[in-house]
Specification:
heterodimer, A: about 150 residues, alpha/beta, Beta Polymerase, domain 2, two-stranded parallel sheet, B: about 375 residues, alpha+beta, three-stranded antiparallel β-sheet, globular
């Protein structure tokens, strides 16, 4: 599907979600409670078959945490940006999609490690790069005690 | 007689006990500081748990405090063998965000440098792959040829590996007057040397015994784990960004995406060898046709990206590299994410090694071509 076709398809089939045309890709924002169900639909619907997550980013917005999934369909070669926000910033919780896309398991571990986002039902949620007890460096209020990063 | 039998039975029991060993972080075949916690039963690998973070340097955090042209210099330090492609990814991302169109000359030179970097990376991969399997000669062959490319890099931009040659708006400097001649000389030279790689290693009985049917990564698993680059293409996953989302001068050249459906270690080996031929073809199509013109567009002193989100994908030597910039309109980014190919490739390792011998783990890991700073960032 082209970007326009994809946008009209998504608008028709995901009435709960907010679909818009980004600068590069079609963008879809869903509610945190709908995330897992949407992920399953995106992967399993034959017309969409989004099966390849090539990027998963956690972002610390001032009032909450955002998670941004870049997903491509290998069969149809169309791309979507799926966005979701957590309700809380200090204790952000979101459903995992690692049972839908395996690669998300490791990207979610990275987001947990660097931003402290907790993923529900994740089978192996441990720190990935940093040791236990370290803060969450990609949060905007992270205090860098040994001043590695000059501000 | 019965006593000896008893001893043998006891020893057998010992050998089948499960145990865990640490492979790394200082193991020579991890090519960097990566620790693998390997669960073994005798020599059989049951489980591989990668533990990374030994050279996590917080590059994404550092990027939030510096300006866009400065980010270029950090990207060199991630995947240092694909330094130029990483530079280019950031440069393209910033150019797209600012809607700057670079001259064709820049596109051509960037693409030539991309392919030279890919060749240099594959050469180094080939020589360490041989070495991991115990064939030391390949190491000298590979480094001998790679030296020619590094010399070209040095003459072009002063650095041999961390080139920082692409910058938002174009290139740091114009190419050296000798550039075209040296590249052409190198292609002529390497076309005679590349068949030697095949002669020396590809047909070798030991290599084929150790790679054929080893480390199976199915087409579905390649997509599920997001294994890209030559490793993904050896499983039939058509993931070449140069083909599917062409950038720079790739729309102007004809080349084949090398696909293999055998999914094993040998397939990953052969895909990389064939990619070296393709890289030579791409450079040959471009090197005589570099258009005249400026080597950079005049950019503002301080680059401020408009508010929004920008993504750029490029193909590095080990797979799909992505730069994701969230901008809030200031001179430094709000959030930068680097999608590194090695990160996704590494976590497919457990799936590929199950049931194989520990010596195969070395061979399988070598064909994934991991660069640890690329994983840890």
């Amino acid at each position: 599907m082209t970007k326009e076709e994809l946008i009209s398809y998504l608008t028709g089939n995901f009435p709960e979600a907010e679909v818009k045309s980004g600068a590069q890709y079609a963008e879809m924002t869903v509610k945190a409670s709908d995330l897992h169900e949407t992920a399953v639909q995106l992967k399993d619907t034959a017309e969409l078959s989004f099966d390849y997550v090539f990027c998963l980013t956690g972002v610390d917005y001032a009032e909450n945490m955002g998670i941004i999934y870049h997903i491509e369909s290998v069969e149809h070669r169309h791309t979507i940006v799926l966005k979701v926000r957590t309700a809380d910033r200090l204790n952000p919780v979101i459903d995992t999609v690692s049972d839908v896309w395996i690669t998300a398991k490791y990207h979610e571990r990275e987001a947990y490690d660097l931003l402290g986002i907790h993923f529900n039902n994740h089978t192996d949620l441990r720190r990935l790069f940093l040791e236990d007890g370290w803060g969450f460096p990609l949060r905007k209020d992270y205090v860098d005690e040994i001043r590695i990063v000059e501000r | 007689m019965s006593e000896i039998r008893e001893v043998i039975i006891k020893t057998d029991k010992l050998a089948t006990d499960k145990y865990q060993v640490n492979m790394g972080p200082q193991h020579p075949s991890t090519h960097g500081v990566l620790r693998l916690l390997v669960t073994l039963e005798g020599e059989k690998v049951l489980n591989v748990q990668p533990h990374s973070g030994y050279i996590h340097s917080g590059i994404e955090k550092m990027c939030e405090a510096i300006s866009y042209p400065q980010i270029i210099h950090l990207t060199d330090r991630m995947d240092y063998l694909s330094a130029h492609m990483n530079n280019e990814a950031v440069a393209l991302c910033v150019e797209n965000a600012l809607q700057v169109e670079v001259p064709d000359r820049v596109k051509y030179i960037r693409t030539i440098m991309d392919e030279l970097a890919r060749l240099a990376s594959h050469q180094l991969w080939w020589c360490v792959f041989g070495m991991d399997l115990g064939a030391l000669t390949t190491f000298f062959y590979g480094l001998r040829d790679r030296e020619h490319i590094l010399d070209i890099f040095e003459e072009t931009c002063g650095a041999r590996m961390t080139v920082s040659y692409s910058t938002p708006g174009g290139l740091m400097f114009d190419i050296h007057p000798n550039f075209q001649k040296r590249v052409k000389d190198f292609i002529k030279y390497f076309r005679t040397k590349l068949p030697e790689y095949d002669k020396l290693l590809s047909g070798n009985v030991i290599l084929r015994e150790r790679t054929e049917g080893i480390g199976h990564l199915s087409y579905k698993d390649a997509i599920d784990f997001g294994v890209t680059g030559p490793s993904g293409r050896a499983s039939g996953f058509s993931c070449d960004v140069r083909k599917h989302n062409p950038y720079s001068a790739y729309p102007f050249v004809k080349f084949n995406e090398i696909l293999d459906h055998r999914c094993d270690t040998l397939a990953r080996y052969e895909v990389r060898i064939l990619e070296m031929y393709e890289s030579l073809n791409i450079i040959e199509q471009l090197i005589d046709n570099i258009p005249e013109g400026d080597y950079a567009v005049k950019m503002k002193g301080v680059l401020k990206l408009p508010e929004g989100e920008f993504y750029q994908r490029v193909e590095t030597a080990r797979g799909e590299f992505g730069v994701f910039i969230v901008s809030d309109g200031k001179k430094n980014p709000y959030r930068v994410k680097f999608r590194s190919p090695g990160f996704s490739n590494l976590f497919a390792l457990n799936n590929m090694t199950k049931g194989h011998k520990i010596a195969d783990l070395v061979a399988i890991m070598s064909t994934l071509d991991l660069i640890i700073p690329d994983i840890d960032r």
